[in-house]
Write a structure and sequence with these properties.
Shape: globular
Structural class: mainly beta
Strand order of the largest sheet: 56-7-59-58-57
Strand content: 35-45%
Number of strands: 59
Number of helices: 1
Radius of gyration: 30 Å
Largest sheet: 5 strands, antiparallel
Length: 717
């Protein structure tokens, strides 16, 4: 793999040398700072009398290929003689990469790339300038993004670039003829100016900019429009339409006399006429003098969440609740232009003449007459032609399902959105699955098993990416999964019915022949949890004993069904033996070839090691200290982990959306993800990823892990 680590130890041939031991490496290697082996020192002067000076340095190879790593050392002996030498280490490196093994990659993220490789996070509004550039209010990322006519996405402004005036809730956007971009941000109107976004109206007036008066006419902004004279119009929750002139004057254009029932989004046509949605009434126009006229009846399956007027004068409206785009003409009334036209439908993501949307919101017309749609639920920007043909311009939605197949044709429902409803359990994710990543386990033949939580099933994925469903193995899954040396599969499940507020956990065993049985004690009684703490992470040792996470404890179940607490006795951070040790909501466990059990101690930001004698020590990370990336010493909310055949640990570092590699001696470095960008980019490492969940090491040394509705695999590690 790229960047292999070499620990090189040097010992002088002289007792108490007169100078420090100096060590350097030729290219293509670099010394990693602040790393010294156990019981060693950089400074020879600190060595006690009669002992030679010993030091260890960790090196990384920085290039792909094979060669000789030459490491030179020098020091001065007591007699003043200069001592030098060279150590040689042969290395072979390959270029690692990331590929899709099965499922679909897409959904919310934050990537400034081109077209569908870019990622958004629930965009709420769009605007288009005269050149065809699209401006996106990327609400979930608290950012304003631009899509150039060629599809390249860039960020114009994002929270963190202007900490004194952060975005609160992006809801609308508009662009004027000079290219000035305006956004509705909660109860304020703001305009992009360089890398700042000052307030024009409303807001707190906090920060370094001038204080802007709050207008009683302006509530939460629903829609924005700018006319050819530079006047800005806003509809808001006060049921008023406000006009903000270039000189700063604020005018109540309409609404103060109670003209509107429930004002919504608004737009402006090429002639400068304002249109606004009045829920329960229809679409209404507003003249320059403030005269309100109803021009269409109520929008089907409304309320409308986006509004535009095309080049022929037809009114176009998006309806999030029906996942559809509608068109109105005086001759034909309202008709569906695109989408499934079903109120309350779950929506979807597909292009073409039978396209699907997922809660479309803001819309805008481009210079060619196409409708640009912020497809909020899909975190994508879509285009609808006048004929109703839909294509995706940027971002990509999530495609979920329960389809067996090969590679990208397979579909999963690995989801843990806080508001995601799972029909097979009759509960929301936050009730059952809130801290349970989709579990992943690998057998000796490199087959991978995952807990397909949303579908309530266990899926098997071969090394060729062929996906099948393991029959009878799941219903309500807690995320724990493990496979023993005989090929038996174990999964943690929740019992009871959908009406139970507290559902106990149990473990099911699935034999290679497909026989499914509950794990029982000696009397044949099903073993289950006795309190609200779920059984989640699962591992099996060489003797066939199971280990399962129960709150902040690690339980052990012997092959004959004896259940006991093996380590931990409540929340905390303490090393010790057995129940004397304390953990803080561990997320995952995995055995190493040595027989030691490693624990992702999520709340303590550490990895703990438990010996076969139940002695618990802190192996990596620093208790209570979260890192900002996978670095030399710190982790951030490690959630699940696996150990490869060489003893290296791969851990899902959920606090930084990354996967860290921890060497057998405890050194931490980044393998995947991290940084400010979030979203899966396949190809050469290093690369960004979506938030990873379950992870496992295959016997071929490669790592497999789940992200949303996909199973990814490395190559070249």
């Amino acid at each position: 793999m790229l960047d292999p680590l070499f620990a090189v130890t040097f010992t002088t041939s002289d007792q108490r040398p007169a100078s420090d031991l100096q060590v350097t490496a030729t290219q293509p290697a670099m010394e990693l700072p602040n790393w010294v082996g156990p019981g060693t020192s950089f400074h020879c002067a600190s060595v006690s009398t009669g002992n030679a000076c010993t030091m260890s340095i960790l090196y990384q190879v920085q290039t792909v290929g094979q060669g000789d790593l030459a490491i030179s050392y020098s020091y001065k002996a007591n007699n003043g003689t200069a001592k030098t030498g060279i150590a040689h280490i042969a290395y072979v490196t390959t270029e690692p990469s990331l590929a899709l093994l099965a499922g679909w990659v897409g959904g919310p993220g934050y990537l400034d790339l081109t077209g569908t490789a870019a990622r958004f996070n629930h965009p709420s509004a769009v605007a288009v300038d005269a050149a065809g550039a699209i401006y996106v209010a990327d609400a979930g990322n608290f950012a304003v993004r631009k899509i150039a006519p060629g599809g390249m996405v860039t960020t114009l402004a994002v929270n963190g670039n202007f900490a004194d005036l952060p975005f609160i809730g992006l809801s609308a956007t508009a662009v004027d003829q000079k290219g000035h971009v305006y956004v509705g941000d909660a109860d304020s109107i703001r305009m992009l100016s360089g890398n700042q976004v000052p307030f024009l109206l409303g807001g707190t007036g906090a920060g370094t900019g001038p204080l802007i008066p709050r207008s009683a006419l302006l509530g939460d902004v629903f829609g924005l429009a700018v006319d050819t004279n530079g006047n800005t119009y806003a509809s808001s929750s006060t049921n008023d339409i406000v006009k903000l002139e270039p000189n700063g004057s604020v005018i109540a254009l309409a609404g103060t006399a109670g003209e509107f029932t429930a004002l919504g989004v608004l737009t402006i046509d090429a002639a400068g006429t304002l249109y606004a949605v009045d829920t329960g009434v229809g679409v209404r126009t507003i003249s320059p003098a403030g005269m309100v006229t109803t021009v269409s009846p109520v929008i089907p399956n409304g309320p409308a969440t986006g509004l535009a007027v095309d080049l022929t004068g037809a009114i176009l409206a998006s309806v999030a609740s029906a996942n559809s785009i509608y068109k109105f003409t005086a001759a034909n009334g309202w008709s569906k232009l695109a989408g499934d036209d079903l109120a309350g439908s779950p929506g979807g993501f597909s292009d073409g003449s039978a396209a699907l949307f997922n809660a479309p919101t803001g819309v805008a017309l481009d210079p060619s007459g196409n409708l640009i749609v912020a497809d909020t639920g899909n975190s994508a920007i879509r285009q609808v032609t006048p004929a109703g043909i839909v294509s995706t311009l940027a971002g990509i939605g999530v495609v979920r399902g329960a389809v067996d197949g090969t590679g990208g044709s397979a579909r999963f429902y690995i989801a843990e959105d806080a508001d995601q409803y799972f029909p097979q359990c009759g509960v929301y994710c936050s009730d059952i699955y809130s801290d349970a990543p989709a579990g992943v386990a690998a057998d000796a033949a490199a087959n991978v098993y995952i807990t397909d939580t949303g579908n309530g099933s266990i899926r098997k994925v071969t090394s060729a990416g062929v996906v099948t469903t393991v029959p009878g193995a799941g219903v309500c899954l807690n995320g724990g999964i493990a496979v023993d040396h005989a090929g038996n599969l174990y999964v943690t499940v929740c019992l009871g019915t959908v009406q139970d507020l507290v559902r106990p956990s149990a473990i099911r065993k699935v034999t290679p022949q497909g026989t499914v049985t509950p794990l029982t004690d000696k009397t044949g009684k099903t073993l289950e949890s006795a309190d609200q703490a779920r059984w989640t992470g699962l591992a099996v040792d060489a003797q066939g004993s199971l280990y399962v996470i129960h709150g902040s404890e690690i339980l052990k179940i012997t092959p004959d069904g004896v259940l006991s607490t093996w380590a931990g006795s409540g929340a905390g951070a303490k090393d010790g033996t057995g129940t004397a040790a304390l953990f803080s909501t561990p997320g995952g466990i995995a055995f190493a070839p040595s027989g030691d059990l490693y624990v992702a101690d999520t709340g303590n930001h550490t990895i703990r090691r438990i010996t076969p004698a139940a002695v618990v020590t802190t192996f990596a990370g620093k208790t209570g200290m979260a890192g900002t990336q996978c670095d030399f010493e710190l982790l951030s909310s490690p959630r699940s982990l696996t150990v490869d055949f060489a003893g290296a640990i791969y851990v899902v570092n959920s606090g930084t959306t990354s996967i860290c590699r921890v060497t057998p001696d405890g050194y931490i470095y980044s393998l995947l993800g991290g940084g400010s960008m979030v979203g899966t980019v396949l190809g050469t490492l290093p690369t960004s990823i979506d938030p990873p969940q379950g992870i496992a090491a295959r016997p071929d040394g490669q790592i497999v892990f789940t992200v949303d509705s996909a199973l990814l695999v490395t190559a070249g590690l």
